[in-house]
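HUMAN:
Could you generate one sequence with tokenized structure?
ASSISTANT:
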Amino acid sequence: MSTEAQIEANRNNAEHSTGPRTEAGKARSARNALRHGVYSMAKLIPGEDPEELDALTKGMLNDLNPLNTHETELVNQLIDFQWRLRRVTNEEARILSAEAPDYKALNNISLHGARVKRQYSAGLKEFQALHQKSLKIFWEDMTTAEKIVEANKILNRPTNLEEFGFVFPLEAVERRIRRRKLIALTIRKGGNVEFGYKPMPGEEEDLPLAA
């Protein structure tokens, strides 16, 4: 355990430390920072392509499809982990391509990569569990919204879904209703055409040509 004298000495040393003072020292420090950029938490470091990061971001958002703010934050963390794993791969390749590979540095980088992979796996599991619950709530709410829209249509009155606490656009709910009717109508026609099936009045008229 450090004594009070040691703590005070460490504090004084820290206060008087100004980092590299010469231009050569500053340049060397900058190179070290870049060399170990694999550990950086920054979104981009020198030499990285912002378009590549943008493509990764759009791709993962599209694949994972977060449904709320919490899920979006988790996806952002997953994007960050994936981007840092690419840094690990690039740094490993750089080390191995050297005439005299630094295997100690390679081992350190590999350990860091393994740690980031574990973080990614844990984050993905957390997202999937939350997303599953969110989807269940989403479709339950969508089904309720559909019933409200259909009831109001029968009563010939307008629908304001916000009054019921829903965030769905009315057009999206109506489109889902049309698609559901189209699927049901297609199944009924396919199963009954040989028996002289005829749609109920208004069934086909309510369906757009492309739903």
